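User: Can you recover a sequence for this backbone? Please restate the input before giving your answer.

Assistant: Of course. Working from this structure:
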């Protein structure tokens, strides 16, 4: 039995022009903070962006329209002096945030910061993120323009399960 948030979690790249309540953003961030971290370091922090001019500047870096149209952008960051698994810590926090957003009727998408385009460094400079912090993605949040169809048992591929060895 899979929880409904996992079934309903789909990438959303088009958002309604409808404000997201502050209490929802807080709940999404709580879900991210409550995610497990390597050695329980709890070093993940969050930058919340609502300002349209800042979103436009982020769009100039990442070139994906949904960063401009999402009502809120959340950027998880972690202090690399406190964790030996920054990518894993940020990934688990982000997934928790995605599931909480779905539970609140909101949509999200993983916007990777691509190393080959130096996007992380550009975002860090734009937002004043200290050098010792790492970020790997942006989490746009908003009300979906259209509700994507949930996963079903038809999407499950049993052949991808390997017992004991490949």
């Amino acid at each position: 039995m899979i929880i409904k948030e996992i079934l309903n979690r789909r990438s959303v790249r088009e958002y309604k022009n409808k404000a997201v309540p502050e209490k929802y953003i807080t709940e999404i961030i709580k879900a991210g903070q409550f995610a497990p971290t390597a050695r329980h370091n709890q070093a993940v922090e969050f930058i919340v962006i609502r300002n349209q001019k800042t979103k436009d500047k982020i769009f100039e870096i990442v070139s994906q329209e949904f960063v401009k149209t999402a009502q809120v952008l959340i950027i998880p960051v972690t202090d690399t002096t406190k964790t030996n698994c920054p990518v894993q810590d940020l990934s688990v926090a982000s997934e928790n945030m995605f599931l909480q957003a779905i539970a609140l009727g909101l949509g999200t998408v993983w916007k990777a910061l691509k190393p080959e385009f130096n996007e992380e460094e550009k975002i860090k400079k734009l937002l004043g993120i200290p050098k010792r912090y790492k970020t790997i993605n942006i989490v746009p949040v908003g009300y979906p323009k259209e509700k994507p169809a949930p996963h079903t048992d038809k999407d499950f591929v049993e052949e991808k399960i390997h017992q004991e060895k490949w």
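That completes the design. The longest strand covers residues 72-79.
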